[in-house]
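Quick board copy: two proteins, each given as sequence then tokens.
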Amino acid sequence: MKRRAMAMACLLGAAGVTHFVRPATFDSIVPPGLGNRRFWTYASGLAELSCAAMIAAPATRRFGGLCTAALMVAVYPANIYTVAKHWRSPKGRSIALARLPLQVPLVKVAWEIAEESR
């Protein structure tokens, strides 16, 4: 497996597992308007594990890269919600704001994995 694909698969796999091991952490960043937070925590964890598996397998790597890019865009509202939620806490706000630009390279790398797998 190519190095970036392996790194992305490991990152997604670890994050996906963490959704099930420590769900309360993720429940707290699900915008309340989406309803059952635990459902969305588990659904996003399952999506990350699925993306990791697709990227790990050469036959599905292209589709996995595209799905991962889409997933990173789809979860971005949770990061924005987290900024708003922690706005009055300087430390919380700083951490939440720092996470926002991190999604950009994740989308970019996922897209590049898909492109390299053509």
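And the next:
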Amino acid sequence: MLDEIEAGQLDAAKKSFAWALRKDDDDTLFSLGEELYGLGFNNQAQRVYLKLLEKYPDEDVLRTVLAEIAIDNDHNDEALSYLNQIKPDSDFYLSALLVAADLYQTEEQFEVTEAKLKIAYQIAPEEPAVLFALGEFYRLVGKAEQAIPYYFALIQQGLLEFAKVDIAGRLGMAYAQAGKFDQALGYLEQVDRQYRSSDIRAQIGLIQLHTGDLKSAAATLSDLIKDDPQYTSAYPALAQVYAKQDNFEQALKTLQEGMGYDEYNESLYAQAADYASHLGDSQLMDKYLAKAHQLDPENQTITLQYSNFLLDQGRHQDNLNLLASLDEDDGIDPQAQWNAAQSYLALEQFDEAGQAFENARPSFETNPTFVKQLVAFYQLMGYREQMLDELQRYVALVPTDEEMALRLAQAETDWDY
């Protein structure tokens, strides 16, 4: 049958398979199941294992592989049924725990996954498959600090590679995610070149950037982009390197190159707008911020960045139109309320300005700039008591502002001020 599959004679292979199920001995059938599963003939492999399980109902190895086939076929309930039949006294209980943990992880039932892996660790605390599974799990769920001991335990056993994964690289990435950059760099630089993926090279560049080794970061990230130009997360990192060197022109050029490979990444446009501001190019800022907002209109960080720009440009109606797109049900950022208040005030829409100032007040009561604007607003509206309260608040915040202190003294003594 296997020879006929290799020769592409599938009709003949079907006949040979039927003959094998009837005539081959059990050891040969088990080997056939392994071969078929490896070749991706899951349904045929399943038939082999089911036939063997019917004859050997106590062989949990068959339940384990049937569970794996069921998972591959997206029959998760069927897989769990097989796994749950494997009891703790079985030689294959550990394997069943690991398969079940993997299954629950794919379904994002992380608490169950962790529980299964912890049981496996209690049974076999030095088993490489268990250590690796725990490290991978904690790395996946963002608990890098907890992943580190398991990867380190593998290295202590002399296992620098497991499941075709470079463990030094994994350990280095985990240290980096945990913010331990010196240890991270030490392990990442040990990764053999054949395993030094774009992810690892990018992480090395990010660590060099974070630690201020800008020359090395520029070289690492530039080489990565040269070798893998479609690794788009390298472009904003390299742009940051140039920005830290005050080379905003090159930073902007780098992001523009990245846009050629990832034209729908709103973060690239928002970052480019920031660098354009350092170059004094308001036209380019407007273009990139509009594009970033278009790509992700629900991103309040980008919306606020664009709003700040429009406010600075005195484009108050455009600013209000932009902020009107925010969904109140998701909660509007207080800075957006403050920005709206300033535009309403500039357009002499005083009721709306007053409401927006009030909405923003709880978040900015200790912000001198906000309080000073509120003083001016209340004075314009003739709200004397409120103006006096805000004057007092401002002078308490900025006692060195002699002009405002004088205004407060006059307001307190001259009610008609």
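Board note added afterward: The mean pLDDT is 93.
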